[in-house]
Amino acid sequence: MQIKIVENDRELHDAHTVRRQVFIEEQNVPVEEEIDEYEESATHFVMYNEALVPVGAGRFRLLDGIGKVERICILKQERGTGAGKLIMDRIEQYAHDQGISSLKLNAQTHAIPFYSKLGYEIVSGEFLDAGIPHRAMKKTVGIKC
User: What is the pTM of this model?
Assistant: First the structure.
């Protein structure tokens, strides 16, 4: 697997293709909620398999000194292979390289065990986002000396 920070329109299109398949087609999230006003200000990530087909995506934003991990998704056929951990590791490395020590995300409730294994802790009650139950989670990551 290869994970890239999106640098051009083709890579952004690839990331959006994965997000559309997972969130819009599979989970029925309205397109206007999935593709939002933060697209241009976010740092996007796209994961390619060995055949250079996009299979995962995510994005990262900085909010008041805290890194917000968003839109993490892996195509159904790649789930359970470790792809999700790989993309999260890459995003966390990016945050670390930027000197960001605190990360947060809004996890779909079914994904809480996945994020918990990565060291995220629940910091909120359940809430709906795009009609899907979520809980906020946070993690502190190390800073380079």
Answer: 0.92
